[in-house]
C-alpha cells in the first residue's frame, strides 16, 4: 500500500484550474448512486465527508454512495486480525 499512499500524496487538486469551466448537470432530476468512494487521511491527501459532499453537490441528484475500503483508519492496537475493523467503525 505504500506505493498507493505515495501516489495519492502527489495528487493535488488545482481548484483554480477546475473553476475555469462550469458545466450544468445534464439530467439534474435523475437519481444517482455514486458506486465508489473512499474516506482517508493520508499525508497531503485528506478526503472525508466534507470533500465528498463538495464533490457530489455540483447539481447532480446524488441520493446515495457506496463506501469502498482503502486500508485507512485501522485500529492502532488490539489483535492484528481485527485492526481493519477500525475503518468500518470510522465511516459509521
Mean pLDDT: 85
Strand order in the sheet with the most strands? 1-4
- Based on secondary structure, the structural category is alpha+beta
H/E series:
HHEEEHEH
Write down the overall geometry: elongated
Domain count, please report it: 1
* Fraction in beta strands: 15-25%
**Ends: how far apart?**
23 Å
Which radius of gyration do the C-alpha atoms yield? 16 Å
| Low-pLDDT residue intervals, each spanning 5 or more residues | 1-11
How does the major sheet shape up? 2 strands, parallel
Q: What's the tally of helices?
A: 4
Number of strands: 4
- Estimate the helix proportion, in percent: 25-40%
Features:
two-stranded antiparallel ribbon; 92 residues; alpha+beta; 4 strands; 4 helices; elongated; 22% strand
Structural overview:
The chain has 92 residues and is of the alpha+beta class. It has one domain. Helix content is 30%, strand content 22%. The protein has four helices and four strands. The strands form two sheets. It has a two-stranded parallel ribbon with strand order 1-4. A hairpin with a 2-residue loop joins strand 2 and strand 3. The longest helix has 9 residues. The chain is elongated, with a radius of gyration of 16 Å. The chain starts with a helix and ends with a helix.
Secondary-structure topology with pairs:
Layout: H1 2-10, H2 15-18, E1 31-37, E2 40-42, E3 45-47, H3 49-56, E4 61-67, H4 85-91
Task: Please sum up the structure shown.
The chain is 30% helix and 22% strand.
Amino acid at each position: 500500500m505504500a506505493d498507493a499512499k505515495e501516489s495519492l500524496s502527489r495528487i493535488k487538486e488545482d481548484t483554480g484550474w477546475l473553476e475555469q469551466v462550469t458545466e450544468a448537470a445534464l439530467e439534474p432530476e435523475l437519481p444517482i448512486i455514486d458506486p465508489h468512494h473512499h474516506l482517508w487521511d493520508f499525508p497531503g491527501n485528506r478526503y472525508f465527508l466534507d470533500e465528498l459532499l463538495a464533490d457530489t453537490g455540483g447539481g447532480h441528484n446524488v441520493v446515495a454512495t457506496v463506501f469502498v475500503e482503502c486500508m485507512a483508519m485501522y485500529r492502532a492496537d488490539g489483535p492484528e486480525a481485527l485492526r481493519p475493523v477500525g475503518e468500518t467503525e470510522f465511516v459509521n
